Amino acid sequence: MKEYRPQEIEPKWQKVWEEKKVFETPQYSQKPKYYALVMFPYPSGTLHVGHVKNYTIGDIVARYKRMQGYNVLHPFGYDAFGLPAENAAIAHKIHPKKWTMDNINTIRGQIKKMGISYDWNREVITCNEDYYKWTQWIFLKLYEAGLAYKKPGAVNWCPSCQTVLANEQVKDGKCERCGTTVTIKHLEQWYFKITEYAEKLLEGLDKLPGWPEHVKTMQRNWIGKSTGAEVDFPVEGLDKKIRIFTTRPDTIYGVTFMAIAPESPLVLELVTDEKRKEVEEFLAKVALEDRFKRTSLEAKKEGVFLGRYAINPLTGERIPIYVANYILYEYGTGAIMAVPAHDKRDFDFAKAYGLPIKQVIKPKNGEWNIEEAPYEEEGIMVNSGPFDGLESKAGIEVVTKYMEEKGLGKKSVQYKLRDWLISRQRYWGAPIPIIYCDKCGIVPVPEKDLPVKLPENVEFLPTGQSPLTLSEEFKHTTCPKCGGPAHREVETMDTFVDSSWYFLRYVNPKLEDRPFDTNDVNYWLPVDQYIGGVEHAVLHLLYSRFITKVLHDLGYVGFDEPFQNLFTQGMIYKDGWKMSKSKGNVVSPDDMIEKYGADTLRMYILFMAPPEKDAEWSDAGIEGVHRFVKRLWNNYYKMLDIINASDVEEAEFGREEKALRRKLHAMIKKIKEDIEGGFKFNTAIAGLMEFNNQLSDYLESVENPSKKLLREIAEKIALIISPFAPHMAEEMWHDLGKETLIVEERWPDYDEEALKEDEITIVVQVNGKVRGKVTVPAGFTEEQIKERAVESVKKLIEGKQLVNTFYVPGKLVNIVVK
Ligand code: ANZ
Ligand code: ZN
User: In chain numbering, where does the motif 'KMSKS' region fall (predicted)?
Assistant: First the structure.
C-alpha cells in the first residue's frame, strides 16, 4: 500500500497549481464573485503558527467557495511601512527597505509551503512606490475635500518610538506598540477629519449583521455619541458666557458649582487677580501630570476656585467657578455645570472642597441619602421649580425645549471620536505630499508629480525629529504654484493610512494611472469575508470604513462599507503565553511542515479549538491529528486496492453498506452545515474522524466489501477534505484515476435519500391479541420501539393499568394491561 509522504506530495501539487495558474482570478466571470480577504501582515520577522491560523481559516473559506462554483478573489500582501520594520532595521543596522524585503521573501516562502490558494499575481507591498503613490493620492483627495488639515495642539507622544500617536494607538495611557507611557507634546500636525463621518460610521454599523456584536460595540463606544444640551451660563460682572455640555439638563436646578478644563483659555480670562497666582501654580502642576490618569474615574479630584461666579440661567443662583483636573478640554465644550447630587465625579469634588450637594432627582420608590452617595439613576424631579414631579427622562426633553424657547441653550450631540492624527516623525512611511512656500503657504503636490519618493540614503535614527529633515535633497524643492524656492513636508503618514485602502488595490494591483478601476472595485467589493485579529476592532477597521466612505462620497467607489462579513480569530498560545520571540515560545510552521506536512498543520490548527477562540498549542495535539491523517490515508489506499483488485466480486448493498452510505452522507451534511453555519471547522474535522472510524470498522469486518460503495466513499472523501488538506486530496483524486485537478471540482452535496434510515414493521398485541402494527426506523432501540407500540394503542388501553411489555426482536410487542 502507498505510504503517506507529505514532504513529497506537497511541493509537487503546489508546483502543479502554480504552473496551471489555478488560483489566478479572472477580473470578471460568469460565476458569482466571492472576495475572501485576510488581514495582511507586518513583515517584521518570520511567521509563527499563530499568524498562519489566520491564513488557514481564510484558505478554507476561499477553497470551499471556489468548489461551490464562485469566482474567488483571494489575495495577499504586506503592510510593509512602519515602526516595527524601522526599529528592527535600526537594531540590525541595515536599511529598512532591505530588511523589509528580506522578510517579505521569507514570509512568502513560508506561506507557499502552507499551500494557501493565493493569487500571487495580485501581491501588494505598501512600501513600494507604485503603491504609496496612491496612498499619497488619497491624501490629496482628502485635502481637496477639506478632510485633511493641519492644526497645532496637544498630541500623544511616545518617548520610546519618538513619534506622535493617534488616540486609537494609545491603550490605557500606553503606546499600543511598545507599552511605554505616552506623554503630551504640543505640535502642529496633519489630521484626517474622521469626526465629520462620526454619524455615518455609527449608522453603517447597523447595516453590518455579518460583523461580531462585540466589534460593533467597541466601535460604537469609541465613537461615543452622547445626546444632551449646550447651555450658556453668564459670568457675573463680565460680559462673558460659559458654554457647557450636559447630558442631564433635567438636573440643572441642582448645579452647585461649575468646572473648566485646565487647558481652556477661559481659565486665565476668568480668574480674579487675588486667585491668579494659586491658579497658575495649579495649571503648572496639572501640565506635568499624565492626562489619562488625571481624568480617570478613580483619580483624585482636584481644582481651584477662580474667585468668580456664574449665574444659573434657570434659577438665577450664583454659582462658583472652578478649574478642575477631571474636565477634558477636548470633549464637549471643555466646561461643565456640576451637579454633585447626581454625578460621582462632581460628588467627589464637592466633598473634597466642601461644596453644597443639592438633590433634584429622587428615586421613584423609597428614599436616598444624598450626603452618602450620588443618585445617578432615573427618577422624579424635585426642588426644580415648575418642573417638579416630572420623570427625569421626560424632564431632559422638557427642560431642553424650555431653554431653547428662552434662548438659553440648545439640543446638542457630542462624539468622543477625535480627528485622526496622521503625521509621524519617522522615516519608514509614505511622505505627506505637501509643499510649504513662503509666498503661497501650504501647496499640495500636484497629482502628476506623485509619488513624492522616499529618499533612500537618509540617517534614520530616531531623534524626535523626522529623519527627512536631515535630507537637504528631499527637503528643498520649488513651489508648484509660483516656482519659487519652497520646502517639502518632512513627516510621513501613519501606516494605518496605507492599510486603509489596500483591499481596493488588490483588485487592480498593476494599474498605473489610477489606484483602482471604479467598475472593477464595484464588481469585487464589498469584501464577502474578512478575517483577522480582534486587536484591530477599532484601529484598522474604523479607518478602512472611514476611507471607504470618503471615496464613496467623492464618487470613486459605489459602496460605502468595505467589509460585508467579519470573522475575528482567536490567538494561539504556547505554555500559557501569547507566542513571541522574546518569550522564546514560538512554534514555526516550517518545522511543523517538515515534520508532519502542511496538511497536518492545517488540520491541527483548525481542529484545536473553535477558530474564534484562543487555543493552547500542544505537541501531543498535532501528533494526534497527524495519526488521524495517516489513518485516513491508509483507509483510502486500502479502498483503492479493493476497488482496483479485479478478483473482488461486485456485491449488492446489504445492511452494512446501506448503513455506511447513510453515515457518509450524514457526514457531508454535517460538514457543510459546520462550514456554512459559522466556521465550525473543529467539529467538521471531528465529523470526518468519526466517519473514518466507521469506515475502518466496515473494512475490517466485512468479508466482501462493495466496490461501488467504496468508489463513492473515495470520491467524496477526497472532495470533502480538499479545502482542509488540499495536497493529500489532490494526490488521492489523482490515484483514484481522475484526470482533473480536485481544486477545480465541485464540493459534494449529500443525497437526501441516503440519509433515510431503513424501517421495520412490528406487530402490536394487547394481552396477546393482535391490535395493529407500527413502522419504525431500523436503528430504534427496544425502549423506543416499545414506546411507539404503547402510543399506537393508547385509546384501547385508556384507563387500564400497564403491567408489562414484551418485545420479540424485529417482530412484535405484547402489551400486558389490567
Ligand atoms: C451635568 C450632569 C449631571 C452630568 C448629572 C452628568 C450627570 P458623556 O455621557 O460621557 O457624554 N462632561 C461634559 N463635558 C465634559 C468634559 N469636557 N470633561 C469631563 N466631563 C464632562 O458625559 C456627559 C457628561 O459628562 C455631562 O453631563 C457632564 O456632566 C460631563 F447628574 O452635566 B453632566
Ligand atoms: Zn509659492
Answer: 578-582
Helices and strands, number each (H, E), in the chain: 26, 34
Q: Candidates 222, 233, 245, 382: which one to mutate for ligand 1, based on the most atoms within 8 Å of Cβ?
A: 245
Q: Which of 243, 247, 248 for mutating ligand 1's site (highest number of atoms within 8 Å of CB)?
A: 247
The per-residue pLDDT for range 128-180, each reduced to its tens digit, is 999 999 999 999 999 999 999 999 877 888 888 888 888 878 888 888 888 88
The owner of cell 494526534 is: 624
pLDDT of 698 strictly over 80: yes
- pLDDT range class, residue 649, cuts 50, 70, 90: low
Q: Which atom of ligand 1 is nearest to the CA of 342?
A: 31
- In the chain, domain spans: 137-193+419-496, 225-415, 618-755, 759-817
Residues with CB under 5 A from ligand 2 (ion): 437, 439-440, 479, 481-482, 484
- What dihedral angle (degrees, nearest 10) is formed by the CA atoms of 536, 540, 545, 551? -170
- The pLDDT tens digits of the residues spanning 40-95 come to 999 988 899 999 999 999 999 999 999 999 999 999 999 999 987 888 878 888 89
Say if strands 434-437 and 441-444 run parallel, antiparallel, or are unpaired.
antiparallel
The alpha carbon of 223 and the centre of ligand 1 are apart by a number of angstroms equal to 16
CATH number for region 759-817: 3.10.20.590
Contacts 24+ apart (CB under 8 A), 748-756: 748/668, 748/715, 748/716, 748/719, 748/720, 749/668, 749/672, 750/665, 750/666, 750/668, 750/669, 750/672, 751/665, 754/661, 754/662, 754/664, 754/665, 755/662, 755/665, 755/666, 755/669, 756/662
In testing the pocket of ligand 1, which one of 222, 343, 381 has its CB within 8 Å of the most ligand atoms?
A: 343
**For ligand 1, atom 7: residue with the closest CA:** 343
The residue whose CA is least distant from atom 14 of ligand 1 is: 332
Quick: pLDDT tens for 617-643.
999 999 999 999 999 999 999 999 999
* Ligand 1 interacting residues, C-beta cut-off 6 A: 226, 245-248, 251, 261, 327-328, 331-332, 334, 336-337, 339, 342-343, 414
Within a 10 A sphere around the Cβ of 685, how many other Cβ atoms?
Answer: 22
Q: How far is the CA of 254 from the centre of ligand 1 (A)?
A: 14
Q: How far apart are CA 420 and CA 249, in angstroms?
A: 31
The predicted-structure confidence for 373-388, as pLDDT tens digits, reads as follows 999 999 999 999 999 9
Domain 225-415 -> CATH class: alpha beta
Under CATH, which number does the domain 618-755 receive?
1.10.730.10
- Nearest ligand atom owner, CA of 336: 1
| Ligand 1 atom, smallest distance to 335 CA | 17
Q: How far is the CA of 360 from the centre of ligand 1 (A)?
A: 16
Strand 163-165 and strand 225-234: the pairing is unpaired
Q: What are phi and psi of 362, to 5 degrees?
A: -120, 155
Distance CA 765, CA 811 (A): 11
Identify which of 558, 550, 563, 553 has the alpha carbon closest to the alpha carbon of residue 523.
558
Nearest-atom index, ligand 1, CA of 247: 27
Q: What proportion of the chain, given as a percentage, has pLDDT over 70?
A: 99
174 annotated to a ligand binding site: no
Residues whose CB is less than 8 angstroms from the CB of residue 93 and which lie 6 or more positions away in sequence, other chains included: none
